[in-house]
Amino acid sequence: MNTPSLSSSSRALVLGGGGSTGNAWLIGIIAGLFDSGVDVTSADLTIGTSAGATAAAQIAGANPSELYAATVVPIPPRPSRGSVVDHMDRMHRLIAASSDAAELRRRLAASALDMAAADSPRQEQWREMVSVRFAVHAWPERRMLLTAVDAETAEPVVFDRDSGVDLVDAVAASCSSGFAYRIGDRRYIDGGFRRNENADLAAGYAKVLVLPPFGGRALTPPAWGLQLDAQVAELGAGGSEVLVVSPGEETEHLFFENAMDVSLRAPAAEAGYAQGRAVAEGVGEFWG
Question: Is 101 part of a structural domain of the chain?
Fold first, then answer.
């Protein structure tokens, strides 16, 4: 993948995975920054993973303040904690059975392919659910990278406007979790199975702002190098300056096992917005 020569003017925005509430927090913090005079949507590169892929597509086609206003509209309670807990239990079992990240991806991919066929009604239902989340379905002119994992080879994949893949399909694949989403004759699983932030894809950019709803945590052993700290170290070794802004401890109840509870989207967005306003001065100095 081509990366720019490092220059003081190149800036990358990294939007990590984090479920429904993570997506709301991302919209909130970006809107809080925007309303404080810091427009991070002007990044030369935006990297989106899973919920962050949806957020990347959303901010590419709409004003952050308007997105935020729509996100804080209350949604009736529809908690799905059980499915999240089941997913976490499954992840722990697969991690324990794997020797490294590549083997884990192979196991995750095999598990996804063993589930319902990707050309079942779920395929179209998922695409429709994703497509209504953002208004503009064309790839933006500014560079955007959306991550996924090929379910048949278990190899990471990065989509951009030159990939020949529709933006809706790229987002749907990136946030598909364990579902094998079909694009053409290939099937893909969630981009978070590469790394939950994929900040390392910003190599070559002078300034990298990382917004990780899950705070950079990884379930895998540190030796596998999937955690955000390892990605930041890689970027630093290449000369990039990195700023990470994570949700505060007081908002942890909005994420992790509650990440798919849509009734918590409004408070997650509000928490992100307040945090964006609070950190705007520091982020503005970094962003330039």
Answer: no
